[in-house]
Amino acid sequence: MMIRLKWLSNLFVILVLASTIICASYSLPVSAQTIPGIYVESSHALSNFPDNVSFNLTVASHEELRSIKLSYQINNSPTWLSVIQHFENHHRMTTRFVLSTSGSNFLTPESTIKYFYDVSDKNGSSLKTPTKEIKYVDPRFEWAKIQIGPLTLGYHDQSDEAIEQLTRDLTLNFEILREFFLIKNPKPINGIIYNHRSELVNELPEEATIPEIYHGFAFLDQQVFLGFGMEHDLIIHESSHLLLAQAMNERKTPLPAWLQEGVSSYMEPSRISYDGYSLSKQTVPLSSMESVPQTPVEIAYFYRKSESVVSFLLQELQPENGVTLFQSFLVLLANSPYPSVNQSLDETFGITIEELDRQWQGSLRGIPSPSRGTEIFQTPSPFLFLDTWLLGGLAIIVVLIVTVKFFKNKIYPQKNEEYTDFGENDPYND
Q1: Is 92 helix (H, G, I), strand (E, B) or coil?
Q2: Can you state the angle between helices 322-334 and 232-247, rounded to 10 degrees?
Q3: pLDDT tens, 138-175?
Q4: Of 228, 232, 357, 428, most Cβ neighbours within 10 A?
Q5: Span 64-93, average pLDDT
Q6: What is the pTM of this model?
Q7: Which candidate, 229, 223, 299, places its Cα nearest to that of 265?
Q8: Distances (CA, A) of 48 to 73, 107, 135, 317
Q9: How far is CA 165 from CA 91, 160, 372, in A?
Q10: How far apart are CA 105 and CA 113, in angstroms?
């Protein structure tokens, strides 16, 4: 019995070993396979202010490479953008993607760009690189930041006293904005403030270079704004643009410009509201104000009417509950299937755009608007172009000095140092 058991035990061990060997033999070809790989040799991005951001990648593969795609996101925008390069007969490739950051492609300094690559070969194998970040910076200034509510504000060369006062003033205003737009937890927004327009004038989008009108520029998809001068009203105006965009959720159809600018202007602490009666004679119908006009005078009247109409809706059309109705109006605009402004006005205020325009025209509330031909622009701060004026004045002084010296030399020529006056003993004097 013992012998039989020992024999059976030995047989079991033999069978186990045999099966292990068989399994191993079948697995050997799989484990011995060399799976083609894609390798990143180097990857870096470079901020080249004010022109571009460059993305550089070198990859190698056992198989022929087919494409490299760069995907990037700017300032936590909900949209990821991408560019792709295709090629053949290369096992090793170095690519350079260049993102323009000036002019029509203007990117605000202090922006954060997240990015990654997708690399594929001819066999369909692919590699997705880890997501990295690069900060697009203006190296000319030493930047500082403050946090006010949802806003991270970047600035340079401001006194501590000015920043402390600004923070106190804006804290309450941001609480008002949060309540007005019914946003319980606003997403982060960013702003960057330059002291003078001339610090960045050559890199701005064309529409932002009209000094009489635009002192700020909001980029809704990036949730960031740019401003010139540490002005209270400017910061609240541009922040209102960004928070209104948040309140609209996923609405793809943009709101008409009169509503966007009217709301943002209305939220300015020092706003001025003009009465509809006098202003209506200088402006186009509300239904034609889907976009901002192009000339300075038209733009100025556009902003005046936009703020005045929004003020009329909030305070005069139904004064007892105007704010509540306006908030319901915005909520309706933000909810799928995203009705038009006209539909939302009808459901909340019981009025069409045309009727709103007519009733607003009869409003005498507010400051009478000057007629066309009258100077209507607010005088820009005399310090807005201070550095430009200083350089211009210095250039004028230099030109005057050179001109005076030139004519002085012409009228009173200096003696030649190599000339000697021999007087009566001059050998060339007859």
Answers
A1: strand
A2: 50
A3: 999 999 999 999 999 999 999 999 999 999 999 999 99
A4: 228
A5: 93
A6: 0.75
A7: 299
A8: 18, 12, 11, 52
A9: 60, 9, 38
A10: 14
